[in-house]
């Protein structure tokens, strides 16, 4: 009777161990497996362990990272005119933003214009049309400059404006371009300014301020003249901000009058 109880007790204990997750049988005494000789693989074709030489490991080298800023500088410097610059930008493969864009948006307006406007990046409407500032913000921009007798369609350079963006491709979900993305497009932008040779530059928003002046803070910077690339530069709030904040249009009007006055001084 006692042996039967021992057997049932042992069985119950084993089942309890299995239920807890113990699936390997163990002996009565512990085994020091570090002291055991390793068992060679059972293969008739395997040579004796003494004849095996360790395989030489090839050095692991990281794939070289391309310096896209340097490549952009080379491509931009080689552009002798606006058509060549457009081709260089369209051929540039360093910016991942290009993969998701429909069009490469370069510029619009009169290349002989005295005023060059630099925006941030194309939006949905601009990406579809292939031109900068064609949506609601662009329509407001046209009205703003028409108020001082200027426009992108003006045939005379004294009345014309020329418009471009820092980024020629629409950012995914209209996000802000990263510092690296801006840096690789700055050489093209600087070459663009050199080829157009405007009398002054207007920076619409934070991204062009970062690209051209190296700093942000448009609400502090707007209305204050600066200089970059040998040109007078005026930061202004983006028309999209004016659509959201109509009260800021008064300050934008003051900036437009400042542009008008600067052009008279530069005549």
Order of H and E elements: HHHEEHHEHEHHEEHH
Beta-strand segment tally: 6
Helix content: 40-55%
The largest beta-sheet arranges its strands as 1-3-2-4-6-5
Largest beta-sheet characterization: 6 strands, mixed
Average of pLDDT: 87
Which runs of at least 5 residues are low in confidence (pLDDT < 50)? 60-64
What is the number of helical segments per DSSP (H or I, 4+ residues)? 10
Structure class: alpha/beta
Radius of gyration: 34 Å
Distance between the termini: 119 Å
In percent terms, what proportion of residues is strand?
Answer: 5-15%
Overall 3D geometry? elongated
Write the layout of secondary structure elements.
Layout: H1 2-20, H2 68-78, H3 82-91, E1 107-109, E2 115-119, H4 124-129, H5 136-146, E3 161-165, H6 179-196, E4 200-204, H7 206-213, H8 218-221, E5 226-228, E6 231-236, H9 239-244, H10 249-266
Parallel strand pairs: 2-3, 2-4, 4-6
Antiparallel strand pairs: 1-3, 5-6
Characteristic terms for this protein:
267 residues, alpha/beta, 10 helices
What's this entry about, in short?
The chain contains ten helices and six strands. The protein is of the alpha/beta class.
Task: Give your account of this protein's structure.
- There is one protein chain.
- The protein is 42% helix and 10% strand.
- The protein contains 10 helices and 6 strands; from the N terminus they run H-H-H-E-E-H-H-E-H-E-H-H-E-E-H-H.
- It has helices at residues 2-20, 68-78, 82-91, 124-129, 136-146, 179-196, 206-213, 218-221, 239-244, 249-266; strands at residues 107-109, 115-119, 161-165, 200-204, 226-228, 231-236.
- It has a 6-stranded mixed sheet with strand order 1-3-2-4-6-5, with helices on both faces.
- Helix 2 (68-78) packs parallel to helix 6.
- The longest helix is centred in the first third of the chain and has 19 residues, at 2-20.
- The chain is elongated, with a radius of gyration of 34 Å.
- It starts with a helix and ends with a helix.
- Mean pLDDT is 87; it is low at 60-64.
């Amino acid at each position: 009777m006692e042996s039967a109880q021992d057997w049932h007790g042992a069985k119950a204990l084993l089942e309890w161990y299995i239920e807890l997750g113990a699936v390997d049988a163990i002996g009565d005494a512990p085994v020091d497996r570090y002291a055991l000789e390793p068992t060679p693989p059972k293969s008739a074709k395997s040579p004796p362990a003494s004849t095996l030489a360790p395989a030489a490991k090839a050095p692991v080298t990281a794939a070289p990272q391309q310096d896209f800023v340097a490549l952009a500088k080379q491509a931009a410097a080689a552009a002798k005119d606006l058509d060549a610059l457009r081709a260089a930008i369209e051929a540039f493969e360093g910016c991942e933003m290009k993969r998701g864009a429909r069009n490469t948006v370069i510029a619009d307006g009169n290349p002989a214009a005295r005023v060059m406007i630099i925006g941030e990046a194309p939006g949905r409407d601009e990406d579809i049309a292939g031109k900068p500032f064609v949506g609601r913000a662009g329509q407001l921009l046209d009205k703003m400059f028409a108020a001082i007798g200027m426009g992108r369609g003006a045939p005379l350079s004294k009345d014309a404006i020329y418009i471009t963006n820092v980024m020629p491709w629409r950012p995914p979900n209209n996000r802000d371009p990263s510092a690296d993305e801006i840096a690789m497009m700055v050489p093209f932008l600087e070459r663009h300014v050199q080829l157009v040779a405007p009398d002054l530059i207007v920076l619409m928003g934070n991204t062009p301020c970062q690209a051209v002046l190296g700093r942000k803070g448009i609400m502090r910077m707007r209305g204050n003249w600066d200089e970059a690339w040998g040109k007078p530069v005026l930061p202004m709030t983006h028309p999209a901000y004016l659509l959201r904040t109509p009260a800021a249009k008064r300050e934008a009007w003051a900036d437009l009058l400042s542009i008008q006055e600067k052009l008279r001084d530069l005549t």
